[in-house]
Amino acid sequence: MGYVCQDCLDGVFSGTNDMVKKLTGRDPLEMMDYIVKNEALFRAPVAVHE
Question: How far is CA 21 from CA 34, 35, 36, 38, in A?
C-alpha cells in the first residue's frame, strides 16, 4: 500500500480518459472521494475475542 501512496503522490494515476463513464455510465470519483465513500473497505478488521 505504501508504494501505491507514493505513486499517487508522484502523479502516476493522474492521467485522464473517459473509460469509467463509458463502462459505468457514471462520472469517475476522485481517489479521496472513493476512499471516503467506501471507508469500511479500508479499515482493518477488528478481532473478536471470546
Answer: 15, 19, 20, 19
Can you give the pLDDT of all 50 residues of the chain as single tens digits? 778 889 888 988 877 788 889 999 999 888 889 989 999 988 888 778 77
For residue 22, being part of any structural domain is answered with yes
Separation of alpha carbons 33 and 39, rounded Å:
10
Residue 47 is assigned to a structural domain of this protein: no
Is residue 35 in a domain? yes
Q: Print the domain residue range for 22.
A: 2-42
**For residue 19, what are the CA distances in angstroms to 1, 13, 16?**
24, 14, 9
